[in-house]
Design a protein that fits this description.
Elements: H1 21-42, H2 44-61, H3 63-66, H4 98-134, H5 136-151, H6 154-165, H7 169-196, H8 199-206, H9 211-247, H10 259-269, H11 276-303
Length: about 325
């Protein structure tokens, strides 16, 4: 009688069977690590931007644990101390630790940036997708409104809205969301027009699919890369605009620390006596804008199939 030989199967870990959730979870983590490593090799500037963005997120979420003092805590005998081992970035004219205020300022910038992008992107997607998909008289009417919207200087619109609503976090978000909606909707409309003319959209219409189903299942998923790129690149501009509004006194009111307000108030007053009071908030704003811009530019190259594999990938951007 023939004796069957055991098959030369690959060795398995104890307690882990092929197709198990544990194996699938490890596979997902492995693929994620591979994708991150490939992104860092191909886009080093984008990876640096990602590190800056992640650092800002950690500062915003864990500000109470990272900052050694409260954002409005007065330290006795530490008025306008220069940077040193005790106070890394020095102190201001009210004896407050600048490192702690910069850390808490990241929470303001991140909150304003993400809330503004969320509101503005949702409005821009609604306007751009509906205008590009339906076309006709509706598209003409909507685009004339967008043209009139874009004819005004963006900063004038934001200042006008803030003058009516007054300073405050939510008012800053609404004013900046109004500003970014027009430009983003125009870009999303162009992508929607391209997608709406593809064969599978025509096939869905021929099979009797309704407009909501076509938009939700075919149009929006295919313009999502454009939406993500616009949102990522727009974050840097929003943070810069919020800092400018705070510099002019229309941002988040004190005592909450905002990088723009730190530049405008005591930072400008004591520029010559304590230059670190203006230098460090300016450095924080520059790093934030640089990080989001570099990350957004790298994501554009990765997510846009027209740029994938082009000569831009070889420049490390």
């Amino acid at each position: 009688m023939a004796v069957s030989r055991p098959s030369a199967a690959a060795p398995q870990l104890p307690g882990v069977v092929v197709g198990s959730p544990v194996r699938a979870e490890r596979s997902r983590w492995t693929n994620a690590v591979i994708l991150v490593g490939r992104f860092m090799r191909q886009k080093p500037l984008g990876a640096i931007g990602g590190v800056i963005v992640v650092s800002m997120l950690l500062m915003a979420v864990f500000a109470e644990r990272i900052a050694p003092y409260g954002y409005d805590e007065t330290i006795r005998g530490a008025r306008m101390k220069p940077p040193g081992p005790v106070h890394w970035l020095g102190t201001d004219n009210l004896s407050r630790d600048l490192w702690s205020r910069v850390v808490y300022g990241a929470r303001i910038s991140i909150s304003v940036g993400f809330l503004t992008i969320a509101v503005g992107t949702c409005l821009a997607t609604l306007i751009g997708v509906s205008s590009g998909y339906f076309g006709g008289v509706y598209d003409i009417a909507v685009q004339r409104v967008v043209d009139a919207w874009m004819s005004f200087p963006f900063f004038v619109i934001a200042l006008s809205v803030m003058a009516v609503l007054g300073p405050g976090l939510l008012n800053v978000v609404l004013s900046l969301a109004v500003v970014i909606t027009a430009t983003s909707s125009r870009v999303i409309r162009g992508s929607t027009i391209s997608v709406a003319q593809l064969t599978y959209v025509e096939a869905a219409r021929a099979m009797g699919a309704g407009h909501p189903r076509i938009i939700l299942r075919y149009v929006i998923p295919n313009v999502m890369a454009t939406i993500i790129i616009l949102a990522t690149i727009g974050l840097g501009g929003v943070i810069l605009a919020e800092s400018a509004l705070s510099f002019l006194g229309f941002g988040v009111p004190p005592p909450y620390p905002s990088w723009g307000a730190m530049l405008s108030g005591s930072g400008r007053t004591y520029m010559y006596r304590a230059p670190w009071m203006a230098i460090w908030p300016g450095v924080a704003i520059s790093l934030a804008v640089f990080g989001f811009n570099m990350l957004g530019d790298a994501l554009r190259d990765v997510l846009d199939p027209r740029l994938r594999g082009s000569h831009r990938a070889g420049r490390g951007g």
